[in-house]
Amino acid sequence: MTTTDEAVIWMRPEATGRGRAPGYTRAQIARAAIVIADAEGLEAVTMRRVAKDIGAGPMSLYRYVRTKEELHLLMANEVVGPLEEWIGPENSDLATTLSQLARTTRRQVLAHPWWAQIVAASTLVGPKWIEIIEGATARLGGLSLEIDEMMEIPATVRTFALGYAQNEARRGRAGAETEMTQWGPYISTLIDSGNYPYLRRIIADARGPHEHDPDAHFERALARLVTGLCAPFGR
User: Fold this and answer.
1) Of 120, 119, 86, whose CA–CA distance to 102 is shortest?
2) CA angle 211-159-173, nearest 5°?
3) Residue 30 to residue 14: CA distance in whole angstroms
4) For the chain (length 235 residues), average pLDDT per consecutive 10?
5) Exposure string over 28-37, b if 16+ CB within 10 A, otherwise e
6) CATH code for the structural domain at 4-78
7) Per CATH, which fold does 83-174+205-233 belong to?
8) Numbered ranges of CATH 1.10.357.10 in the chain
9) Residue 45: helix, strand or coil by DSSP?
10) Distances in Å between the alpha carbon of 50 and those of 54, 173, 184?
């Protein structure tokens, strides 16, 4: 029976508790699963498939990871890099911290699209992610904010970057040009009706829908968001 202090995988030791050292580490198992997810998507990651790829017996993986959900958490934690990569050096100002958090979140999702699915399903996806939440929140510690406000500011940036990158990855897979080709005749009828003047301006004048530099588009949107979030603090 699983006790309360065993419910979270990181509260259990790596060893199996059966008097012998484990043949694999959690990191090895997670890395094998990551290779599968990067190539084929999260749906392709099963306990049986990962066991096969590392050369283990079909049921032996359960000695190390009890459920597929635990495996997902190991994967999500494994690909998270160092704290400074996410929020910048310790002496970074608030705008730099928030911008770094957004940029790294975007890079993470574009490199591992499945990662966003796991983060969306579980707020605390592992020790490394908890360190990032702690570090980002701590950067607001000297601003005399309530703890809810301290949580909400970096959370707003993370949510923006996650959503932006997911949409970017989806459009990259679907092909924006193909999508516009399919919708083009319909959009034309709406513009010709005269009832959608701003849609006409979006199609005719806006840079965003036609821009081939996603980095520039992201940076403009991020700058607006960070400027607004930092404005009350004069940062």
Assistant:
1) 86
2) 45
3) 13
4) 69 67 84 97 95 89 91 96 94 95 97 93 86 94 92 95 91 61 84 91 74 85 96 81
5) ebbbbbbebb
6) 1.10.10.60
7) Tetracycline Repressor; domain 2 (1.10.357)
8) 83-174+205-233
9) coil
10) 6, 25, 43
